[in-house]
Design goal:
- The chain is α+β, with helices and mostly antiparallel strands.
- It has three domains: 1-30, no CATH class; 35-152, 2-Layer Sandwich (Ribosomal Protein S5, domain 2), CATH 3.30.230; 155-216, 2-Layer Sandwich (Alpha-Beta Plaits).
- Helix content is 30%, strand content 31%.
- The chain is built from five helices and nine strands.
- Strands 2-3-5-4 form a four-stranded mixed beta sheet. A three-stranded antiparallel beta sheet has the order 7-9-8, covered by helices on one side. A two-stranded antiparallel ribbon has the order 1-6.
- Strand 8 and strand 9 (191-199) form a beta hairpin.
- The chain is elongated and about 80 Å long.
- The mean pLDDT is 93.
Length: 216
């Protein structure tokens, strides 16, 4: 993996490697990491039950999930009462939830910024174990997540482009076409500076695209 401060920096390093070692290098644009989250509160439920002739498996979990502030991460609380779920099984439920969050629910991306509260459930004196509650916790979370208006999050970058005034219209239109949101404009002599917020996915090759757009 080769990393650098900019696309131009990476291209310079690649050129030096090719020139020094006389090798060809295949490169590809890295995948932009998306995240899943929710925009509404919802309840989820799952009963895990399996009987194979010997000791069976049983666990039932009711939980509630709700969105939290962006960047707050994951919160988990045990709101059960009356012994509906023995306390020793609560960590297994949380583990199942966390495992499911890592896999994603709607698109295979990690889930972020949710609060999960377990509030009820059932167990069996013989057939319940940590494995059963881990499975039930994961499936109950999936059930709730799918009903909580899930959305995908993508990284947004702050971009400032300085250009001669004659290119301002073309670059403005180009940024709009990249789903950019113009946040400000400044003048600096014969140059104009456009400030914008743009999805990272749309500007991974922007340095080269900008040179082509301005013929420079």
């Amino acid at each position: 993996v080769l990393s650098g401060v900019s696309e131009l920096h990476l291209n310079t390093v690649l050129h030096r490697i090719k020139a020094r070692y006389k090798v060809e290098i295949d490169t590809k644009i890295p995948r932009v990491p998306l995240r899943e989250t929710i925009t509404a509160k919802s309840d989820g439920h799952f009963r895990h039950k399996k009987q194979t002739g010997g000791r069976g498996q049983f666990a039932e979990v009711f939980l509630r999930i709700e969105p939290t502030e962006r960047g707050s991460g994951f919160e988990f609380s045990d709101d059960t009462f009356g012994g509906s779920i023995p306390k020793q099984y609560i960590p297994a439920i949380e583990k199942g939830v966390v495992e499911q969050m890592g896999k994603g629910v709607v698109a295979g991306y990690q889930v972020v910024d949710v609060k999960v509260s377990v509030y009820d459930g059932k167990y069996h004196d013989v057939d319940s174990d940590e494995h059963s509650f881990r499975k039930a916790g994961a499936r109950a979370f999936r059930d709730a997540f799918e009903k909580s208006r899930p959305v995908l999050l993508e990284p947004i970058v702050h971009l400032e482009v300085a250009m001669p005034s004659r290119f301002m219209g073309d670059i403005n239109s180009d940024l709009n076409g990249r789903r950019g949101r113009i946040s400000g404009m400044d003048a600096m002599g014969d140059f104009q500076i456009i400030k914008a917020h743009v999805p990272l996915k749309e500007v991974q090759t922007y340095a080269a695209d900008l040179r082509s757009l301005t013929q420079s």
